[in-house]
Amino acid sequence: MIDPGFMLMPAPQARPTSLTQLDCSRQHSRVMANKIQCETHGECEETFVCNHLVGETAGLGFNRNEPSEENSFPDAWCDDCELIRAAHNGWNEESEKLATILLLCSGCYERARIRNTRATVTLDDLANLRWKCFSCEEWHTGPCLDFSFDSPSYWQTDHQEASSRDSLLSGSGKEHAKTFLDEDYCAIDDRDFFVRGIIHLPIIGCAETFRWGVWGSLSRENFETLLRLAEDPKRVELPPMFSWLSNQIDGYPDTLNLKMYAHLQQPGWRPNFELERTDHPLAQEYHHGITAERVKEIMMSRIRSFE
């Protein structure tokens, strides 16, 4: 079953029905610069994969030819389909009868690659980790995949004092307060505005993500729109909102003011932050994924004690 997060749109020309035909289709696509529209990633380059790689599948293998300047997203297939290809000495009329091809946007293709690439170390290998966090005295077991910040880096003690004064004077809630901080929104001096959201780092070889809970700036107009539509289900239809990352995450070069886009979710859910593609290590991890070893490395740098 195809995951509803994927929008599979037919290409302008007739869709190929075999992997051999894809070679000709690719040549034509480079000339025509075919694009498809994805509900998650917007307008992207079209790609082709076997049906097993669509949806939230993970750990199935991701086979393809090496990407090149002419073809950044070679056609891909899972390990089961690779067995078919190998048994028939390549993709040909016989092997193609046993493979089903689907169209994906290049963004969904990259996520499928990260989820299905086989890893030597997986999250299952971290299942026996025992650790204590900084917020409680309880022992926990397994990988910790969430770390968050309670406020933007720009929130200071004097802002908290101003927030208390504003609350006493206005008595009418955050919509009218010049300075305030709650679990989801922050305003400073009626000039700087922030929303709390999540940066999902995909983990190679699994469908799970590692999550940084961070704050991002918003324009006044977008901030007011977000407050006004906080309980409106139609807010998910709003376009992504530009944002500057507003926390310094230890273990990375300076993360303040990395460019992001806030993708609004249903009421009660925090936005997902999409990092712009850059050479910054955090952006690289967002777009290319992290290993289970990297998850453990982050944990060990932020957890109080391990067993």
Major beta sheet, specifics? 5 strands, mixed
SS-derived structural category: alpha+beta
- Quaternary state of this entry equals single chain
Beta strand %: 15-25%
Instruction: Compute the number of helices.
Output: 8
User: Overall mean pLDDT score?
Assistant: 85
Radius of gyration: 23 Å
Counting structural domains, the number is 2
Low-pLDDT residue intervals, each spanning 5 or more residues: 1-32
Report how far apart the termini are. Answer: 41 Å
Helix and strand topology:
Blueprint: H1 19-32, E1 35-38, E2 42-50, H2 79-87, H3 93-96, E3 101-105, H4 106-116, E4 130-132, E5 139-141, E6 146-148, H5 157-170, E7 180-181, E8 185-188, E9 192-202, E10 209-218, H6 220-228, E11 241-244, E12 259-263, E13 272-275, H7 281-288, H8 292-302, E14 305-306
Parallel strand pairs: 6-10
Antiparallel strand pairs: 1-2, 2-3, 4-5, 4-14, 7-8, 8-9, 9-10, 11-12, 12-13
